[in-house]
Amino acid sequence: MISFRQADLLQNIIDEVPTITVYYETVTPESIEQGDIADQGIEEEFVGDWSKSSDEIVQWAIELISSYKPLEYSDSHPNLEKLDGWFTTMDSKTDYRTGADTRYTIHLKNFTPEQSKQIYQGLMQ
Q: How many angstroms separate the CA atoms of 45 and 24, rounded?
C-alpha cells in the first residue's frame, strides 16, 4: 500500500510527463441542419516515456502526430518561442455510409518550449 505522500509524488510525476491528446469532433448531415455537432471527445491520449532523451521525445511526437497529416496549426503566425496552440487535421475522415465527417485536433502538454518548437518545425515543413 502506498501512502498519500507517495501518491502525491507519483501524481506530480505523471502531471509532468509529455502527453499528446487527440480530440475528435463529428458532424452528421442531421447535426449540420441543427447547427450543432453530433459527437465530440477524446479519441486517444498518448503518454511519453519520461526516461527518453529530449530528442527522442520530439521524434516520438513528430512520428505520432504525422499519422494525422495533412495538418494546420491553430495560429497562422505562431510565436515559435511560445507555442500555445494545437494542430488540426485539414481533411475530415468521412464515413460514406452515414455521411458523418470527423476532424481531429492534437494538443501537446508538458513539452518544453524548445521541444514544442522542434515538433512544430518538424511537422510544418
A: 12
Residues 6+ apart with CB under 8 A from 23: 40, 41, 42, 43, 104, 105, 106, 107
Per-residue model confidence (pLDDT) at position 77? 87
Q: Looking at residue 25, what is its pLDDT?
A: 97
C-alpha cell at 61: 511526437
Buried b (16+ CB within 10 A) or exposed e, 31-40: eeeeeeebee
Residue 91 and residue 69: Cα distance in Å, rounded?
8
Q: What angle do CA 85, 104, 96 make, to 5 degrees?
A: 155
DSSP β-ladder status, 93-95 and 100-109: antiparallel
